[in-house]
Amino acid sequence: MSLLSNCTPVRSGVASVLLSTCLGFCVCPAADFQSLFNGEDLTGWAGSHGAWTVEDGVIRCTGRKYGGRNWLIWRGGDIEDFELRLKVRFTSGNSGIQVRSEERDGFQVSGCQMEVASSEKMGLWHHSLSPEKYRSHPATARQRRIISASGDKTADEFGASASVQAAFKDGEWNDVVVVGRGTKLVQIVNGVVLAELIDHDLKFARCTGVLALQDLGKGTVAEFKGIYLKRLVADAGPLVFEDSFERASLGDSWQVPISFFFIRDGRLPGREDSERGHGAVTRAAVLFQNAVIDFAFRFTDGKNFNLVINDRACSTVHAGHICHVAFSPARVRVADDGDGFMKHEIFAIRQDKSGRAEVQQLLKGRDVVISKTLAAGGCHKAAVTIEGETISVRINGESFGAPTSSGIAHSTKTDFGFTVTGREIEFDDVRLRTVDTITAV
Known about the structure:
The model is unreliable at 4-29 and 437-441 (pLDDT under 50). The strands form 3 sheets. The chain has a 16-stranded mixed beta sheet that branches. Helix content is 5%, strand content 46%. It folds into 2 domains: 3-13 and 244-440, Exo-inulinase, domain 1 (Jelly Rolls); 32-232, Exo-inulinase, domain 1 (Jelly Rolls, Sandwich). The two termini are 31 Å apart. It is elongated. By secondary structure, it is mostly beta strands.
């Protein structure tokens, strides 16, 4: 019997966006884009009474002198991986385009915002209603900024501020693109990339949330039209592996180098071999580079397992380990093994406890730990997408972020499977599809 017999199925996916496909286009209707504005009224949008109007096919904020900042919120649902296209004209004050954000009472919105202001202020990625000071300016013009899991910032610059900001024309209509993929956000104006933000912050980063437009009040004049959204999802290729375990024995589909894995009642239980002192290991031989792996699991007696991705021919890492995702009832952990935990040089240092500080420095940024409660006894549906340097994780339809690290992009993976430590955990309905291209939902 399937573990999913009492579970709600979910769709998995992650997007991969090539910026070259976004540059130099005009904002116009397209078959795979959804129009968010009908050009006549605010149907599908909600905002503070009197703060927003529609005239001549344009959404305008009124910038009420005595009104505080407020947002016009699109009611079409949260957005995850996406490409947003629209035209923007700015005259005065301060406005913004809010993505993957959190709605609060009174049409207030907190989260990542592309600043819309005078040209010398453009390029700012701003955290509206900033929860902490370090979040107020995540990235500015010409920056490619990375925020670590702990909130530390690093950046490199890809141009001069003035030349990048000059792409935005005050008082004129500008073609604007905002792209969100995994932890990465990019803003593009009239074909010029203004700023990029890669946000791993465990406290405040979001991979899903509302879309909204901002009016800061106090005389702000900003206008928006031609608003189109494409939700992005990995176009998983052919199904290259599938197993629902509806048979008596594992057969040739799985290798079990370390016991115990077996079939019982149409499921795959696994438990550690206590005598060997090593987690139970099972692997399925599948050749791939990028893939979506989805499966059902249940914590029965056990509490910890890893989904492990390997390249058995890779000589630079211990046991061919490229990356893994660790699951427990209290957290999910994503780790780069190829350039991190299992890289021979680092693995050797890890064997000596006196080198702990050195190891911590070498592994900085190579794993992300996300706190989340997963109920024991119930079934859960996981979808793990490996694409380039990124692993994205969804459990029961909820995104657990998309950590990025160089070792994950190792060009060849030869097998995948599970390692169970401690007592028994059950698996079912395991599938692997390759990932090559991107399509709209």
